[in-house]
Automatic annotation (TrEMBL), chains A, B:
This is CoA-binding domain protein. The keyword DNA-binding does not apply. The keyword Iron does not apply. It comes from Dethiobacter alkaliphilus AHT 1. It holds the Pfam family ATP-grasp_5. Transmembrane segments: none annotated.
Amino acid sequence: MKNNPLYKLMNPGSIAIAGAGNNPRKMGTLHALNILKGGYGGKFFPLHPTEETVLGHKAYRTVDQLPQVPELVMLIVPTDAALHLLDEFGRLGTRRAIVVTSGFRETGAAGQKKEEELQEIARRHNIRFLGPNCIGMMNSQISLNTTVMPLSGQPGRLGMASQSGTYVTQTFSYLKERGIHFSKAISVGNETDIDITDALEYLGQDEETKAIALYIEGIKDGARFIDVAQKITPHKPVIAQYVGGSAAGARAGMSHTGSMAGPDFLYEGIFKQAGIIRVDTVEDLYLNGWMLASQPPMRGSRVGVVTNSGGPGTAISDTCDKNNLEVPRFSPQLQEQIRQLIQAQASSTNPVDLTFDLNARNLSVVIPELIMQSGEVDGLVLHGAMSHGFLRAIHPYLQEMLGGISLEGFLAQFPVDFTDMVSLPVKYQLPMAVSSFFGNEDNYTAAFRSHSIPVFDAPEKAAKAMSALHRHKEIRERKEIERTPLPALAVEAEKIIAEAVAAGRQVLDEYQAKQVLAAYGIPVTRERLAHCAQEAAEAAQKLGFPVVLKASSPDIAHKTEQGLVHLNLKTVDDVKQAYSAVIAAAGSQVPVLVAEMVQGQRELLAGMSRFPGFGPCIMFGIGGIFTEAIKDVTFRAAPLTETEAEEMLTDIRTAALLQQFRGMPAAETAELARLLRKLGELALLHPRIAEIDINPIVLSGSRPVAVDALIVLTKE
Amino acid sequence: MKNNPLYKLMNPGSIAIAGAGNNPRKMGTLHALNILKGGYGGKFFPLHPTEETVLGHKAYRTVDQLPQVPELVMLIVPTDAALHLLDEFGRLGTRRAIVVTSGFRETGAAGQKKEEELQEIARRHNIRFLGPNCIGMMNSQISLNTTVMPLSGQPGRLGMASQSGTYVTQTFSYLKERGIHFSKAISVGNETDIDITDALEYLGQDEETKAIALYIEGIKDGARFIDVAQKITPHKPVIAQYVGGSAAGARAGMSHTGSMAGPDFLYEGIFKQAGIIRVDTVEDLYLNGWMLASQPPMRGSRVGVVTNSGGPGTAISDTCDKNNLEVPRFSPQLQEQIRQLIQAQASSTNPVDLTFDLNARNLSVVIPELIMQSGEVDGLVLHGAMSHGFLRAIHPYLQEMLGGISLEGFLAQFPVDFTDMVSLPVKYQLPMAVSSFFGNEDNYTAAFRSHSIPVFDAPEKAAKAMSALHRHKEIRERKEIERTPLPALAVEAEKIIAEAVAAGRQVLDEYQAKQVLAAYGIPVTRERLAHCAQEAAEAAQKLGFPVVLKASSPDIAHKTEQGLVHLNLKTVDDVKQAYSAVIAAAGSQVPVLVAEMVQGQRELLAGMSRFPGFGPCIMFGIGGIFTEAIKDVTFRAAPLTETEAEEMLTDIRTAALLQQFRGMPAAETAELARLLRKLGELALLHPRIAEIDINPIVLSGSRPVAVDALIVLTKE
């Protein structure tokens, strides 16, 4: 834990701040105010060029006047001043910094250079820092808030790390209203030193943090990110939003933190590989993050639904169904118990619908408790418990009738004891999500929220949050991720690559590509190169009929359309004729490949591309001529463990194709998984390989065989 | 307009109510209170068995004591009393009713019978009514609210019709807070008389209603629903949520209004056919509905984004991208104008990111106006304009520094004139969506909302709402829907069906099925039936080689696996051998079909099934042996117009397959569309046909040919 640079940074005994003054319209002053007024118990040293005091605290003109070495310094000064001051604090002995100052990489080349200087200064003094261009951090356990937005409230359970400062400061009021409390929140800014993976690691180790939310626009070191996440996610839920996959999104990300975005499909795969639950909106990030942080884990997929209205009950059930949760019909015994408590027209089956009723005790406690006790559910969604919200609205209409009663007096006529209700999740160790159209003006909503039971403002959201817990159940139950060392480099593969490089070729043709693949045990078609019709015929006889003839051309995509492929040749004559036809179609004396004819209707593909930050990534999906139309592929970063490769096989929409299917046997998934792993290893062992495309991989019976392949080399 | 039964019901000059008293805990009293206190100007006649007055109004013991014939009666009494009273009001001459009373179809068989009685009574007296088991309605234009939840506020623009009462009453506070105002809202309950389609028609005609939101759990008369919607949707946006597709969802819907749910995929297609924008959550229904009702239409797909923070800017851009909206890079000229107004590190490209700044005028007015003036966008999304929200939070920290200033005094130091800001959408006739993490405690949020500019509590939601407007642009620009009369019944088809019925067969075999299809001009393989090897050989010679032989078996799915299909037979000998093989595999002397061999790699499917409420529905999608694995199909209700059939062709994920594709020509889409239309007509002309399955339809070059087909007949 203490190896993580954030441990000290998040728990400083003293803080110096440069850039704070007495003008409350200045950012620096706001940062200082939040530290001073938020309840932080450590020492505070403002630096100021002219003022005697800052916010009532003695100010220091220069670093060397400071009475002690501050454990943390915050810089909210112009860019050049930040460089200078970091150096001075480094000399003094300060070893942690938060650089709020902007004007670095995000502004272009000159800023990039300043950012390198900043990094150099920090390295020289062994300073670990957050930022630059960040908004600070907060640690609720020591009431320390270094951001610009005030935050009061109890110590929380949700850890947050964000590549946008907004999400750890502008949302504080939003979160407070919804009863969501951070344990720690960290704005990482440009990540020049401490990055979001450090923050993830820190939050993973932090005992107060029960779940982690990440806002991500780009990952610098993908391998470490995955590794750190995989150690955390089986025990502690991690939920993340990734944005930046679109052109404008990438432009926006680039301009505000200089982060490099990758394609959306890549992050989709990486998050699955890392065991991270992905969400699409910041609302889901916070709300589902809070559900994960506040509720007991889900042990199965069965949800009990209790409502005061059919519409929300139907919507909750439908949303559960679409998110892999069951809403099982209750047992006759349980239904009988429930029927005692509801009106004749109400429904006891699950969802339980009490219909509109101003007495919410059955709705909010008695029936939920019966259901939790029954052992028939793994979680409960409740909609419609309310009182004051409605009473406040109706009071003006009733006031006259009730002798001019005051609102307070009126509300007091409807006392509620919430003790039993709010203790349900802990008592039964079952998660609970509440939906209400009333906010905190209703005493039910307020009671749930103040006892860390999430309340959502729409029924579908409560169901969706429950599904996040269920998703973490699947992640907890994931097969173990066991990393194995890379195998030895295959000399014959390296030789083929070196020859191509020496010859100035940037592409390996099909024959060479398959030899490289075969060198790592990837099953490829048996085949030979032929340079005349006679050689082709001999090759065919040796391989055994039927065979395929094709020009050994690097253009994988359009061989068939150009008449460069002849399938299912059954005789020597067929082969000779086909040979002539290929040469004629090619228009020149190309080498011709004679290959065994692999029969199989199921065509898959595998590929490798390199992405900034992630290195070689492996693609798997549906291949054949309809690849682009079907677009059913999934990605992971290499190297792949067995578990990760297996998960890829079930992560395509048409995964059913790999099962027993219309008389075809189930695919040898272990063999397919091995192929994907080998592809990753190969890419790691041969950095000259830029890209691999194996399409199709035909399932010959159950056995995958690479039927066509292409390898592209790097430019230098 | 006045033909619609709701016109009179929603605009009554006088209302009688049975079931209201002076006990404010009773539902009936709440309904009455809302009528009386909501500002309704018409007459009010409470019926009560004992009280002299109800809520200060003279009460009547019996119907015949009423001083005049009420234009509308509301019944909130026990089930049997409702039947009795409706009859009495009918005799008196009342012609409109709202039956809130429950205990009808939703409770089972006995209730169903009472519901029929209710209907019979209404018919007898020519009464048109809402309900039973509904919550009432509201008409903001005459300040009439007959539901249980108080509602105050300005007359609105969004019309709502709902099969759940909750969504027109329990959400009133929710809606008010978000600045969403209904023009009219209608709870349709069990829809015994007036149904949701009547409500849709009424709202379509209502001039105060600028957009319509529907909450749907099941449609009774699909054809009429589609017809009514298609007349409205090119002019006025209709947005709908359908739930009930899951088993538990259907159970819930059944139990609360007795409505019959259909599968989710069916409603997905029906909504597209009707021109209705579908949403998945009630939040999207309200919020996007309000966006559609309150904002000018979108004329293109270009969105300008202005934020005070990179995270939301990135998220908005990404959400736009995922929802078919562009976030174009601004022209150099526009960027230059913007750069004058922003700090050096801020970005002017689009999204414009001003970074955190307490002066929101540039953010909220000046830059948005520049962008709107430029002609470079079709809509604008703004995030981060705020003042009081932040100031309220920071005030306690600053109070001491500022000489103990009060909150009001402090806020008053930051005056804002919102006039320019809130007039932007109308001034430039461009839609605007705002995102803010502050609610109405912030004066910006409050100002936008009070001027009908939607404010969302997350950036992604604002972008998504903009995409709803864009979706309506597509619907406005849809090709015209021109209904044509059904063609004449094909006598030869009816003959084949009649023969099968007479013979007690429930399935037409492939040969018969294709003959039925061919009778309507659907292109099928040329083929003949053979009963011996010699006949098969002769048939092959007449058709021309190569041919296919297959057992003419009704089991479409597994012929191939059972060895009952032999492809690509090129000689008489091949045909004879194949004949013997088929007979051997079949194990009996089955008829054998000899058909032309249709070559083509692209396999589609079309089908027809009947669904309750919708009659014959047409399916189109990807066929062949991977149909079930790929699951790429779309549905519409028959009869199909040309436009509707064409839209099906582009409504599958893999629609690219129908384009020019890897050397294959584009499919003859007109021919495919005609096939789908014919299928629908056929089903309407032959009600004995229960199901049709044409799979595969092979694209032979560009021409679709039905290669296998099956027709199932109804049981009686």
